[in-house]
Amino acid sequence: MTQAIDNPWTAAGAAAGVSALPVRGRRAEQERLTQWVRRHVHRNGGGVLWIEGPAGAGKSRMLTSAGTEAALAGAQVLTGAGLARGQLTPLAPLLDALAAEADDFAHGPRAGSPEEGASYWLLREVGNRLRALSQERPVVLLLDDVHDCDDLTLLAVRTLTARLAGLPLLWVLASRAHPDAPAVRTLRRDLLTGQAAHLELPPLAPDAVRQMTQDLLGPRATAAVPYLRYLDGLPGLVRQLCAHLQDGSPAGAHGRADAPTVLAALVTRRLDQLSEDGRELVLIASVLGGTLTVQHLSQVLGRPEPTLLRPLREVLAAQLLHAGHDRLSFPHEAVREAVAATLPRPLRRSVRRRSVEVRMNAGVPAVSLAAELIDLAEPGDARAGRVLRIAAQELAPVAPGTAARYLQRAMELTEEVCPERQRLSAELIPLLWQAGDVAEARDLARRVVQGPPDPLTHAQACLELARMGSQFRIQQPDAHIRHVHRRRDVPVAVKDQLLSTTLLNRLLAGEVEVAGGAMAESLMRTRGVHPVSELTHRTLQSMSACHRQNWADALKHSEAAAAGIAHLDPARAAALPEVALATSWRAALLSLSGDDRNARDLVEEAAHEAEQRGRQALLPLWRTARARLLLEAGQLTAATRELASAEAATTATGMSFTGELTALCTKARVAFHTGNDATMEACAAQADACLTSDDPQRRRIGAWITVIAMTYRDGCADLTPRQLSVALPYLSRGYVHATPVDPGETILLVRAALGAGLREVAVTAVEFAERRARRNPRFPLFGTVAAHARGLLDGDADRLVEAAERYGTARPLLRAQAWEDAGGLPTAMISPEARACFERALEGYEACGAHRDVRRVRSRLRKLGIKTGARPSVKPAAAAPAAGAPDAGWRGLTPSELGVVRLIAHGATNRQAAERLFLSPHTVNTHVRHAFEKLGIRSRVQLARLYLSEVDQPGAVG
Questions:
Q1: Percentages of the chain per state (helix, strand, coil), in multiples of 5
Q2: With contact defined as beta carbons under 8 Å apart, do 122 and 95 qualify?
Q3: Is residue 2 pLDDT above 60, yes or no?
């Protein structure tokens, strides 16, 4: 097994044929070992050196190096080593070390023979022989793999190191770190407690590993780079890797070895060094996952935890597993995969299933087990089906796509025809719809409703169909609803929700009268039965009030609905279509009332939640709602992007929950202002299809889009009274799907009617706007729109300017339209007055990105003889009065007020005037208000007209 070393040339084969070349990266340890050996040999002294490190750390090479140094110094070197996986002959390492020195010693009795007292005789003879050898010259005894030595050898080392301490005898012992055998741990403790020296071999640094591969492979060292991180800095594994690469492992197109093949070779060699128990433990651990506890491992193996301590220490010493605070883990995921690949697939599957069963029995939550059960469960496994169903129910509010996948797998495990499968199908319908699998959800819904499910399952399926509106057409829907209400074994809460949701669908579809009467009866019979039903009732009341143009009541009922939403479970409420519709509706109402910030917050929060949770079916609703708010705020570019996103989401899912007509109206309005010809033509084509529909609501919207398209083409003169009269009910109805009609659209209709010469239609529209404003004083936007419409009808410039001022910054597009309308009146065609209005309109249109409107206003300015580039310049302010300016005190104005008035008269906004005069906007507002009071005027147009007529000549600006 081993041999004595008498010269440095035989040292190369000392420790089982290990090379004596030093290990790169071990310079400090090598130097310490060399100095220790030389010092003790030259002094004819004795001592003990304990070398330890993990498997592959280079312990055998360090022993060989120690033997070489000792031989060069004139010492006699003896070598021995323990044998892994059992030792038949006790004391064999020491006996083999001495056998080469005395032939008669080799023929003496052996321990383990039937002769009584043989162990004692051998131990005595070994001691005598070592004493005799040390009398001739210093002796160095190298004993490798102490952790594999038999107990008698360990006892001999423990005894002889103490008994022969005064002789020139050096003991160099090598063992793995954290030895498993109690006798080895005891020997280590006793030696280190005494005078033994200690040398630990830690893993090599990354640079040393790379240099070592360069030494071994030369130019081919680059092939080893991808695998170096899996070697744990152990020189032995580096040599194994290099040897495998030199043997010609499979290589890819770039000369790199196949990773699984290389890792499999490394792992196989490491596994071969383990005992049967250790190999079984690491194989099972590799199947169970990256991290696991000893308790779980013992349960899967069916063995008590104490019996795992020995193999576990062996696996830890081999660096195949690492021990954390309370868990075991593999050093690298690729190593775990390579270990697991050595097991057949059926066995891996069996181990995983056993692991799942252990965790199920331990009460682990279903969500933690479902992902594995999808692959492991077999048809007919009722328990796995129940776990998957529970996991789907828990995940439905936060991850409907994953929940649908779990529920589909539970259905596959269930028998083809049974009540349980029908119930699972009813639960799966809304999950598929939310996740965007609309076609699959529709087909499944039809099968469930048309099939023979139990009454409760049938009722729940009908409710889910009603919640998703008109997307799921079934035969004889009213018959199914009546059937549900006749059944006494269906809970009243389910009936209540089904009835209220059906009424809401009818209201959204335009059946106002039918839904209104039935709704009142429903509220009388079922109010308060279920919170979601109460929420739907409030939304119904709010939309009915909107239809009656009673917007205060609409807002009040919407606030009550919002209070009801606050009492629902937040995790589950966001997934309900009733909640989504109520929230979208409330956001639109808040925007109409002037509370734009809260409206945006509602939509943004809901859109973010839908995106985060993967509710694909709700994304078109929120993106269209966001586009509508952006349109009202004058952010046309952003609105265009949101509409494109909504259309893409609708295309991906196959249907839109927001109602295609809502998106169509918004898209047409945005294209009207931005000048997108292609989009407008597409909207007009859709409008033509709506005009041929049997649905009155679609015909009204088709007529309205036709009006927008013809106005866009400058074809107002071609509009007929019938077209406008059909479009007028679109405005008076109050809402489209779950979105109120924009009050500002009345202005567009009035302008189109006047352009067509149909003044009576314009009068009807203006009167409608004024009635709406009188009935809703809490909504200032209605009053401003009514003033704008009346000013447009009567040609009243002051009223139009007043409307422009009242719009403020909340409705910049409407404000710019009011300025343009004021400048375009025949009575305002005096150049300074028209120019001031058009400049304000141009400024507003440019800020909104309304490119078509910008081109039109620039054309009107050019007709006034004003050249425009990007924007007409505003006369700069000066610190002192310019030539031609009046003296301070004109009409009682102070110099500060006069400086502000000069800029305002030439078209500057309050903010621009503040920037040019280095004042705050608040101060400018104060000066403008004081100027209005002193001059007895109430609009900027009047101010410009007065200032330019009395102070500046019209041609002096520009």
A1: 70, 5, 25
A2: yes
A3: no
Cβ contact 40:102 at 8 Å: no
3-state secondary structure of 290: coil
DSSP letter (8 states) at residue 272:
H
Write down how long the chain is: 958
Please name the helix (run of DSSP H) or strand (run of DSSP E) that holds residue 281, with its range, or none. Answer: helix 276-288
Helix H, strand E, coil C: the string for 684-705 is HHHHHHHHCCCCHHHHHHHHHH
Strand segments, DSSP code E, in 698-857 are 735-736, 739-740
Query: pLDDT (tens digit, 9 = 90+) per residue, 726-760?
Result: 788 888 877 887 788 888 899 999 998 898 888 99
Long-range contacts of 675-684 (CB under 8 A, 24+ apart): 675/851, 675/852, 675/855, 676/640, 680/708, 680/709, 680/712, 681/709, 683/708, 683/709, 684/709
- Pairing mode, strands 76-81 and 291-292: unpaired
Of all residues in the chain, the percent with pLDDT exceeding 90 is 21
Q: Quick one: CA dihedral 793, 797, 802, 803, positive or negative? A: positive
CA distance 879 to 889: 16
- C-alpha to C-alpha distance for 17 and 5, rounded to whole angstroms: 12
What amino acid is encoded at 785 in this protein?
V
- 361-370 pLDDT, tens per residue? 888 899 888 9
Partners of 169 in the β-ladder: 139
State the DSSP H helix or E strand holding residue 143, giving kind and residue range, or none if neither: strand 139-144
* Digit-coded pLDDT (tens) for 499-540: 888 888 877 776 654 444 444 454 445 455 688 888 888 998
pLDDT at 773 over 50: yes
- What would the two tokens of residue 730 be? 């679109």
Cβ-based burial of 951 (10 A; exposed 0-12, middle 13-18, buried ≥19): middle
* Strands, E assignment, 449-535: none
Contact, 194 vs 50, CB < 8 A? no
Helix axes 780-794, 797-807, angle to 10 degrees: 160
Contact (Cβ atoms closer than 8 angstroms) between residue 515 and residue 543: no
Exposed e or buried b per residue across 931-948, where buried means at least 16 C-beta atoms within 10 angstroms of its C-beta: bbeebebebbbbbbbbbb
Q: Tell me the domains of the chain and their CATH numbers.
A: 10-202 (3.40.50.300), 207-341 (1.10.10), 415-484 (no CATH), 890-956 (1.10.10.10)
Q: Does residue 485 contact residue 495 with C-beta atoms inside 8 Å? A: yes
